What does this fold into?
Amino acid sequence: MAKNTRRRGRQDRLNDTTDQDAQRPVWPGIDGGRLKPLLPDEVQLIEDSALTLLDTLGLSQATESMVNKVVAAGGRLTDEGRLLFPRALVTSTLQQARRTFTLCGQNPEHDLMIDKARVHMSTGGAAPGVFDMDTGQYRPSTLADLYDAARLVDGMENIHHFSRPLVARDVDDTAAMDLNTAYACLVGTSKHVSISITEPDHVPQIAALCYEIAGGEAAFRARPFLTVMVCHVVPPMRFAEEACEVLESAIRAGFPVQLISAGQAGATSPATIAGSLTQAVAETLAGLVFAQLVDPDAMAIFAPKPLVADLRTGSMSGGGGEQAILMAAAAQMGRHFDLPTSSIAGITDSKTLDAQYGAEKSLAVALAAHAGSNIVTQAAGIHASLLGVSLEGYVTDNDLLGNILRTLRGVEATPQNIAADVIANVCRGAGHYLGEIHTFDRMKSDYFYPHVGDRRTPDEWQQDGARTVAEVARDKARELLATHFPSHIPDDTDRALRARFDIRLGRPRIGRAP
It folds into this structure.
C-alpha cells in the first residue's frame, strides 16, 4: 500500500507541472524530498528530544513581550529565568502553522511557491569580503558589490532567490547600512529578497521603503517581496533579545520571516551531528511558537542551520561531508513537520573557483535539495567558509545548480517517456534515434545545457585558448555587469525614494540619469 501511495504522489507531482515548465529542463520549485538520511525512529527521537528540551530546560533571555505571550499560552518562566515551552503548546503551533505561502518577486514571474518539498536555490551569507575579479585578491566588500551581486543573480535563471550575501562595509552607521542593504538588493533584482535587520528601531524604515516601492502598505502586505532573516537565538538555548524584538516588529510590519538557529558543533552546540541538529530544531521551534503568538497567520520559515567546525582548530568547516549530511537531516525534519523550510548548503571552504569549490558545493547543495529544503541558501557565490563572495561564482554556480535541479526531476518513468513504440520503430528502421521527432522534441525539455561549462573536444578547447571555467565565467560576469541594469523600479519611484531616504548608491551607479 505504501509503495502505491508513493507512486501516486510522484505522478501527481508530474501532473502539476505547468505547460511552461514542461518546455524547460529545470524550473523553480521542482519537487525534492526523496532523500531521507534519518530513519523513522531517528526522526521521532529527535522530535521527542527537542520537545523535551523545550518543556524541561527552555531558553533563557526571553524578552518581556515573549514571556507574556508564552506564559499566557501555557508556558512558564522558571526561577532561573528560563522560559519553558510545554509540549502541548509546541504541538499546537506545529498543527496551526502556515504550510504554504508565496514569496513574491517584484516581478510576479519570479514568485516562489513555498509548498511541501518544492526546492528553490538562493544566495546567502554575510561575507565581509569579495574576491576582486580584476586583482584576483580579496578585499572588503562594499555597497556597490552588493548591488552588483543582486543584478548578476537577476540574470541567472537557476538562482531563484536573492538573500543578502555580503556586508556593505563602506556604510558605517548601522541604520544606514540596513536601509541601503535593502535598497541595493531591491533595485538590483526583481526576485524575492531576504535581508537581516540589525536593530528593532530600523524595521519601520525598511518597511516604509518597501511600502513606497510596492505603492502602499496594503499592496506590500498583499505581495511581500522581502523576507527578514532573524537569528533569534544565541546558542546554546538562549534568545537573542534584540533579534527577538526585530522578529516581532518585522512580523507586525507584514514581512515573511526566516527563523534561524546557527550553532556551531563542538562550540555552541553538541559536537555530534544528532545533538547539534536536535538543539537547532528545539531553538527554531521556540522561535516559531513566538512568531505564531505574535500573528497566527505569520509567514514563518523553519530554518535550523547548525554549522560544523573543524575540531582540530575550532574554525568553521562548511565544506565537509558532516555539514552536507547535517543540512540534509535538517531539511528532512522540516519535511517531517511539513513546515516551510530553509537550509544552509554550499559553504565551501575553498578560496577560489577550483576543484574543491565545485566538489564541496555540489555535495552539500545536492543533499539539501534532494532532502526537500524549500530554500537552499548559500547555494551560489559564497566561499572561503562564508568569508568571501565571488561574483563570477554566480555564473559558474548557475550551471551547477541547473544540473542539481535536473537530478531532482528524476527519471520520470511514464509510458510516454519510456517510448516503447519509438524503440520498436527505430529497431525495425534506421537503427538509431538521431532523426526521430521524439529526440528533437526532448532536446530542450529533458536536457540541461551549461552556459559556461565546456563540453568541446580537447583540441577545440586548446584552439580557443584553453581557458578555465573561472576565466569564462569572469568574462560573462563582466559582460552582464556592463550591460544589465534592472529597471523594474520606475524612475519616478526611485527619485521619490531618494527624496525620502538616505540612499547611498548614486543614480549613475545603477544606470540612471543623475
